[in-house]
Amino acid sequence: MKKILVVDDNVVNLKVVDKFLKVNEDYKPVLIPNGKKALQFLEKNTPDLILLDVLMPEMDGFQVLEEIKKMPTAEGVPVLFLTADEDAALQEKVKSAGGNGLLKKPFNKDDLLNMVSQYLA
After folding, report:
1. Of 16, 82, 10, 26, nearest to 50 (Cα)?
2. Domain count along the chain
3. Tens digits of residue pLDDT in 25-61
4. What are residue 27's phi and psi, to 5 degrees?
5. Using CA atoms, how far apart are residues 30 and 33, in angstroms rounded to an integer?
6. Own/partner pairs for 104-108, CB < 8 Å, 24+ apart?
7. What is the span of the domain harbouring residue 88?
8. Are strands 49-53 and 2-7 parallel, antiparallel or unpaired?
9. Which of 3, 13, 23, 46 is the most exposed place for a label (fewest CB within 10 A)?
């Protein structure tokens, strides 16, 4: 069973991602509504993949990733960013921050599952 941490402040987005991921019986999504709670979760748990929203209150996705990189429990865990932002420079920012990829919202089920499967193979 592959544990996938999904961090997004939008409850609807969490539910959609949860529903899409549960199509695959090997995926166990863990839904968390903000960066601080995600970091608390990561102190005691090591997921196989992290899906991280870019724009969140308090801590944005890049700030969360910066903290994740300091955690031994998250070493080597791929991080895919989720965003509705159309900024062309965002892809480069994701790479320079150490993210593994970027999924544009609203995404369809196939796009999400294809990208997730690349990192969980």
Report:
1. 82
2. 1
3. 999 999 999 999 999 999 999 999 999 999 999 999 9
4. -100, 135
5. 10
6. 105/13, 106/16, 107/82
7. 2-120
8. parallel
9. 23
